[in-house]
Specification:
about 400 residues, single chain, Growth Hormone, Chain: A
């Protein structure tokens, strides 16, 4: 929020805001697969600390930046740090939590969404005191603290790469072949990527639905955003309380999340006032949280640990591309058909993803291919998983 406010106040154009938002996704799209390979090849702690320090430098610089070139350059640097951190953090969970990695994944997402829900409210209070400078400086400080804390966390070193993986591109391809060879992983990644298009439509529709279609205020828009965040936190927290689950339960939970997303977005398309919209947004957030954490748990359980970084990195690349596609398509669809039809289209698209997932998982269940927990630390040694056929 502080970065967007700084951009608008300093550069006075919506194009600058679009460029800053693009800077968040471009490194993820361009380098996600490479950064995922780094997470499998190099010490994760070092990568995470480096990523935190990059983001600390970026936001520290933004606290004193006022012209286009430094703002856009530092925003891009922050995006690079975020893209580097994401696969390293996700793939570090099994190393740190062992057999409790499913609970760790749920707690990780729950904490993220607590921050993303509380952050805008905190930023709003700080804006009154200092504008955008103080929130940006405090954000920089938070990354310095995070780097210092992560530096104290013991993480096992990855085994040395096999000879045929000496070339980064070869290592990425080999890792992805091994990751997608696990039954069900391709289904989850494909359906979640498709689901992101519906989510992108919702993001663009939110402010227009609240302020124009439902004739609300900026506070009403904030209520919808907060309701969505509360739903996300509730879902991830409840998943953490349930503990580790077998593969068949994760599959059922994943499909249920897709169905609930479709129903909730369809509800948002027909509501007539803010309070019912807040309920449908809370339900959509709940479904989102349920889907994201279940997807992570499924990958951690089914994908060999030695290639999880590459899978998460490639997933970031694909998802970032589809988010941009969805954001671009949302503007055109809203202009042509209106907000309500756009929300209904998003719900329909998620319903198609749910049907595809049901059909694909039924085939796997019939063949018995989903039996076993490939990624479990007790099931297989990481050193054996690096011996891929190039």
């Amino acid at each position: 929020m502080a970065l967007l406010l700084l951009t608008y106040r300093s550069l006075h154009t919506s194009w600058a805001i679009a460029a800053v938002l693009l800077a968040e996704f471009l490194p993820q799209i361009a380098f996600g697969s490479w950064f995922g390979a780094f997470a499998d090849r190099y010490p994760k702690r070092r990568l995470i600390v480096t990523a935190c320090l990059l983001q600390a430098a970026a936001f520290g610089g933004l606290a004193v930046a006022h012209t286009a070139t430094p703002i856009l350059t530092l925003a891009l640097l922050a995006g690079v740090g975020n893209a580097l951190q994401r696969p390293a953090m996700r793939s570090a969970l099994p190393t740190l939590a062992g057999e409790d990695m499913q609970v760790a994944a749920a707690l990780y997402d729950s904490c993220r969404w607590v921050g993303l829900t509380a952050g805008p409210a905190i930023a709003a209070g700080l804006f009154v005191i200092s504008g955008a400078a103080l929130p940006l400086a405090l954000n920089a400080l938070s990354f310095v603290i995070a780097a210092a804390v992560i530096a104290t966390v013991a993480m096992s070193e990855p085994p040395p790469a096999a000879a045929h993986e000496s070339a980064a591109g070869s290592g990425i391809r080999a890792g992805l072949r091994a990751g997608f060879a696990s039954p069900g992983v391709a289904v989850v990644v494909a359906c979640s990527t498709g689901w992101l298009i519906g989510g992108s439509l919702l993001n663009v529709c939110e402010p227009i639905l609240a302020t124009h279609v439902l004739h609300g205020s900026g506070s009403d828009y904030a209520l919808l955003v907060a309701s969505y965040g509360v739903g996300m936190v509730a879902a991830t927290w409840l998943v953490a309380r349930r503990g580790a689950m077998p593969v068949n339960v994760l599959v059922q939970r994943y499909v249920a999340a897709l169905i609930l997303t479709a129903i909730a977005m369809g509800g948002s398309a027909i509501v007539g006032s803010i309070l019912p919209a807040a309920l449908t947004f809370a339900a959509t957030g709940y479904a989102n949280g349920l889907l994201v954490v279940t997807e992570t748990q499924f990958i951690l359980l089914r994908v060999p640990q030695a290639v999880q970084g590459r899978l998460f990195g490639a997933k970031d690349t694909v998802e970032g591309s589809f988010i941009l596609l969805g954001l671009a398509g949302a503007g055109a669809l809203i202009a042509a058909t209106g907000v309500r039809f756009t929300l209904a289209a998003g719900g329909g698209f998620n319903a198609l993803c749910a049907v595809a997932a049901i059909v694909a998982f039924r085939r796997y269940r019939t063949s018995g291919a989903l039996v076993g927990e490939i990624g479990s630390t007790a099931a297989i040694e990481a050193t054996d998983l690096l011996e891929f056929t190039p």
